[in-house]
Design brief:
The complex is a heterodimer. Chain A is of the alpha/beta class. In chain A, 33% of the residues lie in helices and 13% in strands. The two termini of chain B are 13 Å apart. Classes of the chains: A alpha/beta, B mainly alpha.
């Protein structure tokens, strides 16, 4: 969403308080981030695991992503939207990928793609805003002011560059109590001739007694000056308004529009050996209430192209060998199509985990199309089980500590001990 | 300091001029609230900037236009969108009844509908008139539920009795009338049924109920059972005790503090004046909690731009196309273009506007405004008076002292933390 703000998710539900946000999420320029690469971090990079979180905003239609092509109930529920058996990309005798996901199918065949089926949480919420908060805060019970990555930043006293988002606004995911990840802005500072960066820096000084927001405004200038060195690094990753306008077949509910550009920045950082452990990127537009086929296919194609070229690129370098990608959305969609050749908000959906360290294959159990909860899929895997696997293996920490004491219901050996 | 009157004018409108602030200071706080919300004099600025009228949509009457025709239509619609956007920015700048214009801006963010999906400027203009002409919130809710732009935005025209599309019904409850948590999933589905059957007549710029597509059956919504239709549903939701409280909290979020929840006493006082938005807003502005909320709002990009234009005597209506497009492009990068909210959840607020990325874009707009403004010599003191800032912190004063060129000084003042936060 716009330089689209994940923050609106937080604001809409009032989840994350201003204090966590004002606590110091810093903006960082791409070149400043790249400059955190030192001989020491470069030396550690080939053994430093990294996680890339891909958020699909709007509620991705899981049933048309990982398709239960052998089940007649699938064809009965959505005759206009269902993919005929001869078009799907088979995974096994029951499930197949959407025809747009040819690249992911190749990753599956080379055992670098894990698919966790039926991921959700108890008492599903069908509000975009609340459900995305639940996923990002990892707390389905009550609203909490911190994201699960933010709590990890708090708990490990991590520096700001440990978790970064390539969006202009911080997603709740990266907001901690006392720390937060960084938003990486792309683009250079062009000042009118009568002003110098020194003057901007002067505006960026903190002033005793000013309001938190005014202090925040000042800090944005201090950060802007820090970013000044990045002018020469101006990257192609900024998206034009025209590109954004091209997108919305669906009601906008957030998400950036060029996933490939965001992932190429991640790739650069990984290859440069920066000490970042978690990257957050996103793709929006999945709220396909109407005329779903064409819009959803466009998005899946974008996801497929961006993700597979990223994974291929990562596989080719020692630093990249340590990268794992996790793709999720706030919910799946209703099993039955609506009258508009679209689908309404649903519940459980598949999660993709890809990368050189991943043990490819199917995890969890595909929800039944006959045993529905008021027309919706029943989740078979709690999303926190997936997060537990990621926290323990990729980030090397005790998951319960960052998941509000949550104990996994099932172990998901997505990452074999290496 | 201006005894709170400056805060009042900044929040209730788009940024007072020094003359407006001086007049309001003479009148006093309460009298200014009443003058803002019940202006006695006609709005000369608004009369001079009448709503544009648009010709029929370029594809009007065509069932199967050729690709070339469509491409031409796209360009025409783009030009019309720019025309509407320019007009609105100009109206916000020129209007004397600032509080009225600010409220309409607020409603645009509340019923957040974007032309980037709706596509047809004719529909957006129609919605704008509806927001402008609604007598009170009740009338507005009834009008909006049949507003073709809102219906299209939330797929209402595709919602029929054979298979419901619940997008509009859900957002009606979650974002427009009640707030999340005041209803169940069952209520969402049933509300969707009540809203079935509305079709859009694009050429006539209206929505019409198709009796054959409407689900006439009984629905149970929020514990009430009946053959609810769109108006019945809206009446039911308007009658919930959460509704006035929800609207009051949304007003507080934009006019009071985007950071702190509405205090209980304020909440009661504002909700009690439902459904008259001007009366609700008057109660809010007269409340002690409002007067204590200084420093708790960040100016939205459009608010910031329009306020600066008013103070500098710059009129968006007189910008050449190149200037307009550059400013709109910058507004887009800041995350706020009129008629194009980023999501149905409306605009961001507070610190979300204050990233280094937005700081950078803001410099560009500020410098452009400064280059357009007719200005003479400036000092930090006269700059504060021009921009109606209560005062500079030592930090900003020191920064301003270092600039001799008036346009540079003005640029720095426009981006200063003291000017951005109110």
């Amino acid at each position: 969403m716009d330089p689209i703000t994940r923050r609106r998710f937080l604001r809409a539900s009032g989840v994350v308080g201003a204090s966590a946000l004002a606590a110091g999420f810093a903006g960082l320029g791409i070149s400043e981030l790249l400059s955190t690469s030192t001989p020491q971090t470069r030396q550690q990079a080939p053994t430093h695991p990294k996680l890339v979180l891909v958020t699909l905003y709007g509620g991705n239609d899981g049933l048309n992503t990982v398709i239960p092509y052998a089940d007649p109930a699938y064809y009965r529920a959505r005759p206009e939207l269902a993919y005929p058996q001869e078009r799907v990309l088979q995974l096994d005798t029951a499930l197949a990928l959407n025809p747009m996901l040819a690249g992911l199918h190749r990753l599956w065949q080379s055992r670098r793609l894990a698919i966790v089926a039926g991921v959700g949480y108890p008492r599903p919420d069908r509000s975009h805003f609340r459900s995305m908060d639940i996923w990002q805060t990892a707390n389905p019970v009550r609203p909490v002011p911190t994201g699960w990555v933010g709590r990890w930043l708090d708990g490990t006293a991590a520096p700001v560059e440990a978790a970064v988002s390539f969006e202009s606004v911080l997603p709740p995911l990266l907001a901690g109590e006392t720390r937060s990840g960084a938003c990486i802005s792309v683009g250079g500072l062009a000042l009118p001739s009568s002003l110098t960066t020194g003057m901007i820096g002067a505006l960026g000084q903190p002033e005793p007694g000013e309001s938190a927001l005014q202090a925040r405004a000042a800090l944005s200038y201090a950060d802007l000056v820090k970013m000044d060195t990045m002018v020469r690094d101006a990257s192609a990753a900024t998206t034009s308004p025209a590109a954004a306008a091209d997108h919305p077949p669906a009601t906008a509910t957030g998400g950036a529009s060029s996933l490939a550009a965001q992932l190429s920045l991640v790739a650069r950082c990984v290859e440069a050996g920066v000490p970042t452990s978690v990257y957050s990127v996103s793709l929006g537009g999945f709220d396909t209430h109407a005329q779903e086929r064409v819009g959803h296919e466009m998005l899946l194609r974008e996801l497929d192209t961006a993700l597979t070229s990223f994974v291929d690129r990562m596989t080719a370098s020692a630093n990249g060998q340590q990268v794992s990608v996790l793709v999720y959305s706030e919910f799946g969609r209703r099993v039955r199509a609506n009258s508009s050749d679209g689908t309404d908000h649903g519940t459980a959906g598949p999660v993709f985990v890809a990368g050189p360290r991943v043990a490819g294959g199917l995890y969890g159990v595909q929800p039944s199309l006959r045993d529905l909860d008021d027309g919706d899929l029943k989740a078979t895997v709690d999303f926190r089980d997936v997060l537990s696997a990621v926290l323990s293996t990729v980030l090397g920490v005790e998951p319960a500590r960052y998941l509000d004491g949550y104990q996994p219901k099932q172990a998901l050996p997505i990452f074999p001990a290496s | 300091m201006s005894g709170g009157v400056a805060l009042l004018l900044r929040r209730a409108g788009f940024g007072p001029t020094a003359a407006e602030l001086a007049a309001a200071t003479r009148s006093g706080y309460e009298a200014t609230v009443h003058a803002l919300l019940q202006p006695a004099a006609p709005d000369i600025g608004a009369s001079a900037t009448p709503l544009p009228s648009l010709p029929p949509d370029p594809l009007s009457g065509l069932t199967n236009p050729s690709p070339a025709r469509r491409a031409r239509a796209d360009r025409t619609r783009e030009a019309q969108t720019a025309q509407l956007t320019r007009w609105w920015l100009d109206r916000l700048t020129a209007a004397d009844h600032q509080a009225r214009e600010k409220l309409i801006w607020f409603w645009h963010g509340h019923w957040a509908t974007s032309i980037r999906k709706v596509i047809r400027p004719t529909l957006m203009l129609h919605q704008h008139r509806t927001l402008r002409d609604s007598r009170d919130f009740r009338a507005m809710a009834h009008a909006m539920i049949r507003d073709p732009a809102l219906i299209y935005w939330l797929d209402g025209q595709l919602n029929d009795r054979k298979a419901a599309n619940e997008n509009l019904g859900r957002e009606l409850m979650e974002l427009f009338l009640l707030g999340i948590g005041s209803y169940t999933e069952r209520d969402v589905k049933e509300a969707g049924r009540a809203l079935t059957g509305w079709k859009i007549e694009y050429d006539e710029v209206r929505a019409r109920l198709s009796p054959t597509a409407h689900d006439h059956g009984r629905k149970t919504i929020l514990g009430m059972t009946g053959a609810f239709d769109a108006d019945g549903l809206v009446d039911l939701l308007l009658g919930q005790e959460e509704c006035p409280r929800f609207v009051a909290a949304r007003l507080w979020h934009r006019y009071g503090s985007s950071e702190e929840p509405i205090p209980a006493g304020t909440h009661e006082a504002v909700a009690a004046r439902f459904p008259d938005p001007a009366a609700m807003l008057a109660a809010l502005l007269l409340d002690d909690a409002f007067r204590a909320s200084a420093g708790h709002q960040v100016k939205q990009p459009v608010e910031w731009l329009v306020g600066a234009a008013r103070q500098l005597g710059v009129r968006p209506g007189s910008w050449d196309d190149d200037t307009l497009h550059k400013i709109l492009y910058s507004l887009d990068r800041l995350g706020q273009v009129p008629f194009a909210p980023p999501s149905v959840g409306g605009w961001p607020a507070g610190a979300a506007w204050l990233t280094p990325g937005t700081a950078q874009v803001r410099f560009g707009i500020a410098a452009r405004l400064a280059s357009l403004a007719p200005i003479g010599p400036l000092t930090p003191e006269s700059l504060a008076a021009l921009l109606c800032v209560d005062g500079w912190t030592d930090r900003t004063y020191a920064a301003l002292k270092g600039v001799s060129d008036p346009r540079g000084l003005l640029t720095l003042g426009l981006v200063s933390p003291e000017y951005l936060v109110t």
